[in-house]
Amino acid sequence: MLTRISSFHVCRTLKNDHQLSKISVLMTPLAHHDAIQSGIEAGADDFLSKPLDRCELFKRIEALLQLRNIIGT
């Protein structure tokens, strides 16, 4: 949890910065439709639910890296 700035703001800032926009962002929003929608609008690449499962985290990272290789970014 970020205390002074929202994770949506951080994600949006990364995605709007030309040098940082290719950083993949995994978010763990509350399982609330509005939070997930806000994450999508901010540019999040994927979502994980809490509590985090280490295997799922690694698989999602692997999938994002494979997608990056396919797209060529």
Tell me what you see in this structure.
Helix 2 links the parallel strand 1 and strand 2. The chain is mainly alpha-helical and 73 residues long. The protein has helices at residues 7-16, 33-42, 54-71; strands at residues 26-27, 46-47. The chain has a two-stranded parallel sheet. The model has no long low-confidence stretch (mean pLDDT 88). The termini are far apart. The radius of gyration is 13 Å and the shape is globular. Helix 1 (7-16) runs parallel beside helix 2. It contains three helices and two strands; from the N terminus they run αβαβα.
Largest sheet: 2 strands, parallel
Proportion of helical residues: 40-55%
Rough outline: globular
The order of strands across the largest sheet is: 1-2
Count of helical stretches: 3
Listing every helix as H and every strand as E from the N terminus to the C terminus, the arrangement reads HEHEH
Q: Which ranges are low-confidence, i.e. pLDDT below 50, for 5 or more consecutive residues?
A: none
Key attributes of the depicted protein:
two-stranded parallel ribbon; 52% helix
Chain-wise SSE layout:
Blueprint: H1 7-16, E1 26-27, H2 33-42, E2 46-47, H3 54-71
Parallel strand pairs: 1-2
